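Fold it.
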Amino acid sequence: MTQPAGSTQNLTITRASALYIGALLGPGLLLLPGLAAAQAGPASILAWLALLGLSGLFAAVFSALGRRFPSAGGVMGYVTAGLGNRAGLAVGWSFLVAVVGGAPLVCLIGASYVTELTGGGQLARASVAAVLLMIVLTLAAGGLRASTGAQLVLVSLLIGVVIVAIAGSSASVRAANWTPFAPHGWLSIGHAAATLMLSFVGWEAVAPLTTRFANPSRQLPRVIAIALAATTALYLGLAIATIGVLGPQAASAVPLADLLHRAIGPAGTAAAAAAAIVLTLGAVNAYVTGAATMARQLTGTAHRGEGPAPRFLVTIAATGLLLITLYGLGLISTDSLVAVPTTLFLFVYLGCMTAATRVLRGRARAAAIPATLAVIVMLAFCGWALATPVVITLAVTMWRPATGRRPGAARHNDRHGLLPARI
Protein backbone atom coordinates (compact mmCIF):
# COMPACT_ATOMS: atom_id res chain seq x y z
CA MET A 1 0.00 0.00 0.00
CA THR A 2 1.33 3.43 -0.86
CA GLN A 3 0.84 6.96 0.20
CA PRO A 4 1.02 9.85 -2.27
CA ALA A 5 4.48 11.28 -2.35
CA GLY A 6 4.88 14.55 -0.62
CA SER A 7 1.42 14.44 0.93
CA THR A 8 1.21 16.59 4.07
CA GLN A 9 -2.56 16.74 4.46
CA ASN A 10 -3.82 16.04 7.98
CA LEU A 11 -5.63 12.73 8.30
CA THR A 12 -9.23 12.56 9.43
CA ILE A 13 -10.35 9.69 11.64
CA THR A 14 -12.35 8.16 8.77
CA ARG A 15 -9.53 8.24 6.23
CA ALA A 16 -6.91 7.17 8.75
CA SER A 17 -9.07 4.22 9.80
CA ALA A 18 -9.35 3.15 6.17
CA LEU A 19 -5.57 3.38 5.74
CA TYR A 20 -4.91 1.37 8.91
CA ILE A 21 -7.43 -1.33 7.94
CA GLY A 22 -5.92 -1.42 4.46
CA ALA A 23 -2.45 -2.02 5.88
CA LEU A 24 -3.71 -5.02 7.87
CA LEU A 25 -5.81 -6.73 5.20
CA GLY A 26 -4.42 -8.27 2.03
CA PRO A 27 -4.52 -11.23 -0.34
CA GLY A 28 -3.22 -13.49 2.43
CA LEU A 29 -6.85 -13.79 3.53
CA LEU A 30 -7.50 -15.68 0.29
CA LEU A 31 -5.21 -18.54 1.35
CA LEU A 32 -4.22 -18.53 5.03
CA PRO A 33 -7.54 -19.60 6.64
CA GLY A 34 -7.31 -22.85 4.67
CA LEU A 35 -3.66 -23.43 5.57
CA ALA A 36 -4.35 -22.83 9.27
CA ALA A 37 -7.29 -25.25 9.17
CA ALA A 38 -5.06 -27.85 7.52
CA GLN A 39 -2.47 -27.46 10.27
CA ALA A 40 -4.68 -27.35 13.36
CA GLY A 41 -8.24 -28.15 12.31
CA PRO A 42 -11.00 -26.30 14.22
CA ALA A 43 -8.45 -25.49 16.95
CA SER A 44 -6.95 -22.97 14.52
CA ILE A 45 -9.63 -20.57 15.81
CA LEU A 46 -7.54 -20.31 19.01
CA ALA A 47 -4.57 -19.17 16.92
CA TRP A 48 -6.75 -16.48 15.35
CA LEU A 49 -7.89 -15.28 18.79
CA ALA A 50 -4.35 -15.19 20.19
CA LEU A 51 -3.05 -13.23 17.23
CA LEU A 52 -5.89 -10.74 17.42
CA GLY A 53 -4.86 -10.00 21.01
CA LEU A 54 -1.21 -9.75 19.95
CA SER A 55 -2.23 -7.40 17.15
CA GLY A 56 -3.44 -4.93 19.76
CA LEU A 57 0.00 -4.95 21.39
CA PHE A 58 1.67 -4.40 18.02
CA ALA A 59 -0.66 -1.45 17.37
CA ALA A 60 0.32 0.23 20.65
CA VAL A 61 4.04 -0.31 20.13
CA PHE A 62 4.26 0.79 16.50
CA SER A 63 2.11 3.83 17.15
CA ALA A 64 4.50 4.84 19.94
CA LEU A 65 7.52 4.22 17.71
CA GLY A 66 5.97 6.35 14.98
CA ARG A 67 5.51 9.24 17.42
CA ARG A 68 8.94 8.78 19.03
CA PHE A 69 10.86 8.54 15.73
CA PRO A 70 8.75 10.37 13.13
CA SER A 71 11.55 10.54 10.54
CA ALA A 72 12.99 7.06 11.04
CA GLY A 73 11.50 5.78 7.78
CA GLY A 74 10.08 2.53 9.13
CA VAL A 75 11.29 -0.70 10.67
CA MET A 76 14.94 -0.25 9.79
CA GLY A 77 15.05 3.11 11.54
CA TYR A 78 13.22 1.89 14.64
CA VAL A 79 15.58 -1.07 15.12
CA THR A 80 18.66 1.05 14.46
CA ALA A 81 17.54 3.55 17.11
CA GLY A 82 17.13 0.81 19.70
CA LEU A 83 19.67 -1.87 18.80
CA GLY A 84 22.26 -0.26 16.57
CA ASN A 85 23.14 -0.02 12.91
CA ARG A 86 23.98 -3.71 12.32
CA ALA A 87 20.66 -4.84 13.77
CA GLY A 88 18.90 -2.25 11.62
CA LEU A 89 20.61 -3.60 8.52
CA ALA A 90 19.70 -7.19 9.40
CA VAL A 91 16.05 -6.22 9.83
CA GLY A 92 16.08 -4.13 6.66
CA TRP A 93 17.46 -6.96 4.53
CA SER A 94 15.06 -9.41 6.14
CA PHE A 95 12.15 -7.14 5.29
CA LEU A 96 13.39 -6.79 1.69
CA VAL A 97 13.81 -10.54 1.21
CA ALA A 98 10.37 -11.11 2.75
CA VAL A 99 8.60 -8.80 0.33
CA VAL A 100 10.57 -10.07 -2.67
CA GLY A 101 9.73 -13.67 -1.73
CA GLY A 102 6.14 -12.71 -1.00
CA ALA A 103 5.47 -11.37 -4.52
CA PRO A 104 5.43 -14.79 -6.26
CA LEU A 105 3.40 -16.21 -3.37
CA VAL A 106 0.72 -13.56 -3.89
CA CYS A 107 0.72 -14.34 -7.61
CA LEU A 108 0.23 -18.04 -6.86
CA ILE A 109 -2.66 -17.22 -4.54
CA GLY A 110 -4.36 -15.28 -7.34
CA ALA A 111 -3.58 -18.05 -9.82
CA SER A 112 -5.17 -20.66 -7.55
CA TYR A 113 -8.48 -18.82 -7.73
CA VAL A 114 -8.19 -18.51 -11.51
CA THR A 115 -7.56 -22.22 -12.01
CA GLU A 116 -10.36 -23.04 -9.59
CA LEU A 117 -12.60 -21.34 -12.16
CA THR A 118 -10.94 -22.48 -15.39
CA GLY A 119 -9.57 -25.85 -14.33
CA GLY A 120 -5.98 -27.04 -14.45
CA GLY A 121 -3.44 -28.50 -12.10
CA GLN A 122 -0.31 -27.26 -10.38
CA LEU A 123 1.57 -26.54 -13.60
CA ALA A 124 -1.32 -24.47 -14.96
CA ARG A 125 -1.47 -22.57 -11.69
CA ALA A 126 2.24 -21.79 -11.94
CA SER A 127 1.82 -20.61 -15.53
CA VAL A 128 -0.96 -18.20 -14.57
CA ALA A 129 1.12 -16.93 -11.63
CA ALA A 130 4.09 -16.28 -13.93
CA VAL A 131 1.88 -14.29 -16.29
CA LEU A 132 0.49 -12.21 -13.40
CA LEU A 133 4.00 -11.50 -12.12
CA MET A 134 5.27 -10.37 -15.52
CA ILE A 135 2.23 -8.15 -16.07
CA VAL A 136 2.70 -6.28 -12.82
CA LEU A 137 6.48 -5.95 -13.34
CA THR A 138 5.87 -4.53 -16.81
CA LEU A 139 3.45 -1.99 -15.35
CA ALA A 140 5.97 -1.11 -12.64
CA ALA A 141 8.70 -0.62 -15.25
CA GLY A 142 6.43 1.95 -16.91
CA GLY A 143 6.24 3.92 -13.68
CA LEU A 144 2.77 2.84 -12.54
CA ARG A 145 2.33 3.12 -8.79
CA ALA A 146 -0.82 2.27 -6.92
CA SER A 147 -2.19 5.40 -5.30
CA THR A 148 -3.67 5.51 -1.84
CA GLY A 149 -7.11 5.84 -3.39
CA ALA A 150 -6.61 2.80 -5.61
CA GLN A 151 -5.37 0.73 -2.69
CA LEU A 152 -8.39 1.71 -0.61
CA VAL A 153 -10.66 0.59 -3.46
CA LEU A 154 -8.90 -2.79 -3.46
CA VAL A 155 -9.31 -3.09 0.29
CA SER A 156 -13.00 -2.21 0.02
CA LEU A 157 -13.37 -4.90 -2.63
CA LEU A 158 -11.77 -7.49 -0.35
CA ILE A 159 -13.97 -6.49 2.58
CA GLY A 160 -17.11 -6.69 0.44
CA VAL A 161 -16.21 -10.12 -0.92
CA VAL A 162 -15.44 -11.45 2.58
CA ILE A 163 -18.73 -10.11 3.99
CA VAL A 164 -20.74 -11.70 1.17
CA ALA A 165 -18.91 -15.01 1.69
CA ILE A 166 -19.49 -15.03 5.45
CA ALA A 167 -23.10 -13.87 5.43
CA GLY A 168 -24.16 -15.84 2.39
CA SER A 169 -22.71 -19.15 3.57
CA SER A 170 -23.88 -18.85 7.20
CA ALA A 171 -26.89 -21.09 6.58
CA SER A 172 -24.51 -23.97 5.84
CA VAL A 173 -22.76 -23.89 9.23
CA ARG A 174 -22.76 -27.30 10.92
CA ALA A 175 -21.82 -27.93 14.56
CA ALA A 176 -20.38 -31.33 13.60
CA ASN A 177 -17.66 -29.57 11.62
CA TRP A 178 -16.06 -28.46 14.89
CA THR A 179 -15.22 -31.99 15.97
CA PRO A 180 -12.66 -33.33 16.55
CA PHE A 181 -11.51 -29.92 17.76
CA ALA A 182 -7.73 -30.51 17.75
CA PRO A 183 -7.17 -33.47 15.39
CA HIS A 184 -3.43 -32.79 15.08
CA GLY A 185 -2.71 -32.11 18.77
CA TRP A 186 -2.53 -28.89 20.74
CA LEU A 187 0.96 -27.97 19.54
CA SER A 188 -0.48 -27.61 16.05
CA ILE A 189 -2.07 -24.35 17.23
CA GLY A 190 1.42 -22.85 17.47
CA HIS A 191 2.20 -23.86 13.89
CA ALA A 192 -1.10 -22.35 12.75
CA ALA A 193 -0.35 -19.11 14.60
CA ALA A 194 3.07 -18.84 12.94
CA THR A 195 1.41 -19.29 9.54
CA LEU A 196 -1.36 -16.81 10.26
CA MET A 197 1.13 -14.16 11.36
CA LEU A 198 1.38 -13.20 7.70
CA SER A 199 -2.16 -11.80 8.02
CA PHE A 200 -1.27 -9.69 11.05
CA VAL A 201 1.74 -7.72 9.85
CA GLY A 202 0.91 -4.21 8.75
CA TRP A 203 1.10 -2.05 11.86
CA GLU A 204 4.71 -1.26 10.96
CA ALA A 205 3.52 0.12 7.63
CA VAL A 206 1.23 2.75 9.10
CA ALA A 207 3.40 3.78 12.06
CA PRO A 208 4.85 6.79 10.15
CA LEU A 209 1.29 8.12 9.64
CA THR A 210 1.12 9.17 13.30
CA THR A 211 2.79 12.46 12.36
CA ARG A 212 -0.09 13.33 10.02
CA PHE A 213 -2.76 13.59 12.72
CA ALA A 214 -3.77 17.08 13.77
CA ASN A 215 -4.33 15.82 17.33
CA PRO A 216 -2.59 12.41 17.69
CA SER A 217 -3.43 11.92 21.38
CA ARG A 218 -7.15 12.19 20.65
CA GLN A 219 -7.42 10.77 17.11
CA LEU A 220 -4.93 7.88 17.20
CA PRO A 221 -6.65 5.79 19.94
CA ARG A 222 -9.95 6.04 18.05
CA VAL A 223 -8.35 5.03 14.77
CA ILE A 224 -6.62 2.05 16.35
CA ALA A 225 -9.85 0.97 18.05
CA ILE A 226 -11.75 1.15 14.74
CA ALA A 227 -9.04 -0.75 12.85
CA LEU A 228 -8.83 -3.45 15.53
CA ALA A 229 -12.61 -3.85 15.67
CA ALA A 230 -12.95 -4.09 11.88
CA THR A 231 -10.11 -6.57 11.39
CA THR A 232 -11.26 -8.65 14.36
CA ALA A 233 -14.76 -8.96 12.93
CA LEU A 234 -13.49 -9.87 9.45
CA TYR A 235 -10.79 -12.31 10.59
CA LEU A 236 -12.96 -14.10 13.13
CA GLY A 237 -15.94 -14.18 10.79
CA LEU A 238 -13.89 -15.71 7.99
CA ALA A 239 -12.16 -18.19 10.31
CA ILE A 240 -15.46 -19.35 11.84
CA ALA A 241 -17.12 -19.63 8.42
CA THR A 242 -14.18 -21.55 6.94
CA ILE A 243 -14.35 -24.16 9.69
CA GLY A 244 -18.09 -24.21 10.39
CA VAL A 245 -19.22 -24.24 6.75
CA LEU A 246 -16.50 -26.17 4.93
CA GLY A 247 -15.69 -28.70 7.66
CA PRO A 248 -13.37 -31.39 6.24
CA GLN A 249 -12.95 -29.27 3.10
CA ALA A 250 -11.66 -26.28 5.10
CA ALA A 251 -8.05 -27.23 4.29
CA SER A 252 -8.42 -25.66 0.86
CA ALA A 253 -6.14 -23.48 -1.26
CA VAL A 254 -9.20 -21.40 -2.20
CA PRO A 255 -11.37 -21.21 0.96
CA LEU A 256 -12.96 -17.91 -0.04
CA ALA A 257 -14.03 -19.31 -3.41
CA ASP A 258 -15.55 -22.33 -1.66
CA LEU A 259 -17.50 -20.08 0.70
CA LEU A 260 -18.70 -17.83 -2.12
CA HIS A 261 -19.82 -20.89 -4.06
CA ARG A 262 -21.95 -21.88 -1.06
CA ALA A 263 -23.20 -18.28 -0.77
CA ILE A 264 -24.17 -17.39 -4.35
CA GLY A 265 -23.60 -20.51 -6.40
CA PRO A 266 -21.27 -20.92 -9.42
CA ALA A 267 -21.07 -17.14 -9.83
CA GLY A 268 -19.22 -17.08 -6.51
CA THR A 269 -16.23 -18.90 -8.00
CA ALA A 270 -16.05 -16.37 -10.84
CA ALA A 271 -16.39 -13.44 -8.42
CA ALA A 272 -13.62 -14.84 -6.24
CA ALA A 273 -11.32 -15.28 -9.26
CA ALA A 274 -11.95 -11.70 -10.43
CA ALA A 275 -11.32 -10.31 -6.96
CA ALA A 276 -8.17 -12.42 -6.61
CA ILE A 277 -6.72 -11.09 -9.87
CA VAL A 278 -7.36 -7.46 -8.96
CA LEU A 279 -5.99 -7.92 -5.45
CA THR A 280 -2.93 -9.76 -6.75
CA LEU A 281 -2.01 -7.04 -9.21
CA GLY A 282 -2.56 -4.29 -6.63
CA ALA A 283 -0.65 -6.08 -3.87
CA VAL A 284 2.36 -7.00 -6.01
CA ASN A 285 2.50 -3.44 -7.37
CA ALA A 286 2.74 -2.23 -3.77
CA TYR A 287 5.34 -4.91 -3.04
CA VAL A 288 7.54 -3.77 -5.91
CA THR A 289 7.42 -0.06 -5.08
CA GLY A 290 7.88 -0.67 -1.36
CA ALA A 291 10.75 -3.10 -1.87
CA ALA A 292 12.44 -0.75 -4.36
CA THR A 293 12.52 1.99 -1.73
CA MET A 294 13.92 -0.40 0.88
CA ALA A 295 16.59 -1.54 -1.60
CA ARG A 296 17.67 2.07 -2.20
CA GLN A 297 17.92 2.65 1.55
CA LEU A 298 20.01 -0.48 2.06
CA THR A 299 22.40 0.00 -0.86
CA GLY A 300 22.58 3.78 -0.81
CA THR A 301 21.88 3.91 -4.54
CA ALA A 302 19.62 6.32 -6.40
CA HIS A 303 17.50 5.78 -9.49
CA ARG A 304 16.30 8.56 -11.74
CA GLY A 305 13.05 7.68 -13.38
CA GLU A 306 9.39 7.04 -12.83
CA GLY A 307 9.60 3.42 -11.74
CA PRO A 308 11.94 1.09 -9.85
CA ALA A 309 15.44 0.53 -11.22
CA PRO A 310 15.52 -1.98 -14.13
CA ARG A 311 18.16 -4.09 -12.36
CA PHE A 312 15.89 -4.40 -9.34
CA LEU A 313 12.92 -5.44 -11.50
CA VAL A 314 15.10 -8.09 -13.16
CA THR A 315 16.01 -9.42 -9.72
CA ILE A 316 12.33 -9.59 -8.72
CA ALA A 317 11.47 -11.36 -12.00
CA ALA A 318 14.29 -13.88 -11.74
CA THR A 319 13.54 -14.72 -8.10
CA GLY A 320 9.80 -14.90 -8.65
CA LEU A 321 9.94 -17.00 -11.81
CA LEU A 322 12.40 -19.41 -10.17
CA LEU A 323 10.13 -19.96 -7.16
CA ILE A 324 7.02 -20.26 -9.34
CA THR A 325 8.79 -22.78 -11.61
CA LEU A 326 9.88 -24.88 -8.63
CA TYR A 327 6.29 -24.84 -7.41
CA GLY A 328 4.97 -25.83 -10.84
CA LEU A 329 7.37 -28.78 -10.95
CA GLY A 330 6.23 -29.92 -7.51
CA LEU A 331 9.64 -29.27 -5.90
CA ILE A 332 8.32 -26.80 -3.33
CA SER A 333 4.90 -26.45 -1.74
CA THR A 334 2.67 -23.52 -0.90
CA ASP A 335 3.45 -24.16 2.78
CA SER A 336 7.16 -23.68 2.05
CA LEU A 337 6.53 -20.47 0.12
CA VAL A 338 4.51 -19.11 3.04
CA ALA A 339 7.06 -20.20 5.65
CA VAL A 340 9.97 -18.03 4.53
CA PRO A 341 8.29 -14.58 4.35
CA THR A 342 6.33 -15.37 7.52
CA THR A 343 9.53 -16.18 9.43
CA LEU A 344 11.26 -13.10 8.09
CA PHE A 345 8.36 -10.84 9.09
CA LEU A 346 8.42 -12.41 12.55
CA PHE A 347 12.13 -11.64 12.73
CA VAL A 348 11.44 -8.04 11.70
CA TYR A 349 8.80 -7.76 14.42
CA LEU A 350 11.17 -9.31 16.95
CA GLY A 351 13.73 -6.62 16.16
CA CYS A 352 11.14 -3.85 16.42
CA MET A 353 9.61 -5.12 19.66
CA THR A 354 13.03 -5.65 21.25
CA ALA A 355 14.14 -2.17 20.20
CA ALA A 356 10.90 -0.77 21.63
CA THR A 357 11.65 -2.26 25.05
CA ARG A 358 14.83 -0.17 25.10
CA VAL A 359 13.66 3.15 23.70
CA LEU A 360 10.04 3.42 24.85
CA ARG A 361 8.59 4.02 28.30
CA GLY A 362 5.28 3.59 30.06
CA ARG A 363 2.40 1.63 28.52
CA ALA A 364 4.10 1.25 25.15
CA ARG A 365 7.10 -0.45 26.74
CA ALA A 366 4.77 -2.61 28.82
CA ALA A 367 3.08 -3.74 25.59
CA ALA A 368 6.40 -4.39 23.86
CA ILE A 369 7.62 -6.88 26.48
CA PRO A 370 4.85 -9.52 26.09
CA ALA A 371 4.79 -8.88 22.33
CA THR A 372 8.50 -9.73 22.17
CA LEU A 373 7.95 -12.96 24.10
CA ALA A 374 5.00 -13.92 21.87
CA VAL A 375 7.05 -13.41 18.71
CA ILE A 376 9.86 -15.57 20.14
CA VAL A 377 7.35 -18.35 20.84
CA MET A 378 5.99 -18.20 17.28
CA LEU A 379 9.50 -18.23 15.81
CA ALA A 380 10.07 -21.51 17.66
CA PHE A 381 7.36 -23.06 15.45
CA CYS A 382 8.93 -21.89 12.16
CA GLY A 383 11.28 -24.87 11.82
CA TRP A 384 13.69 -24.92 8.89
CA ALA A 385 12.65 -21.43 7.73
CA LEU A 386 14.51 -19.97 10.72
CA ALA A 387 17.69 -20.51 8.71
CA THR A 388 16.75 -17.57 6.47
CA PRO A 389 16.98 -14.72 9.05
CA VAL A 390 19.99 -16.48 10.62
CA VAL A 391 21.88 -16.42 7.31
CA ILE A 392 20.92 -12.79 6.69
CA THR A 393 22.06 -11.77 10.18
CA LEU A 394 25.37 -13.60 9.81
CA ALA A 395 25.98 -11.98 6.43
CA VAL A 396 25.30 -8.51 7.85
CA THR A 397 27.52 -9.23 10.87
CA MET A 398 30.46 -10.25 8.68
CA TRP A 399 29.98 -7.45 6.14
CA ARG A 400 32.47 -4.59 6.23
CA PRO A 401 31.44 -1.37 4.47
CA ALA A 402 33.84 0.31 2.09
CA THR A 403 35.95 3.08 3.63
CA GLY A 404 34.15 6.39 3.72
CA ARG A 405 30.81 4.90 2.78
CA ARG A 406 27.98 4.93 5.24
CA PRO A 407 25.81 1.78 5.48
CA GLY A 408 22.41 1.98 3.90
CA ALA A 409 20.70 1.75 7.27
CA ALA A 410 21.84 5.29 8.01
CA ARG A 411 19.56 6.53 5.25
CA HIS A 412 16.21 6.45 7.00
CA ASN A 413 14.22 9.32 5.57
CA ASP A 414 11.36 8.01 3.50
CA ARG A 415 11.46 10.73 0.87
CA HIS A 416 9.17 8.71 -1.39
CA GLY A 417 6.31 8.68 1.13
CA LEU A 418 5.77 4.95 0.73
CA LEU A 419 3.92 2.66 3.06
CA PRO A 420 5.47 -0.84 2.91
CA ALA A 421 3.48 -3.51 1.13
CA ARG A 422 1.21 -6.09 2.68
CA ILE A 423 0.50 -9.69 1.91
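Residues 1-7, 403-421 have pLDDT under 50 and may be disordered.
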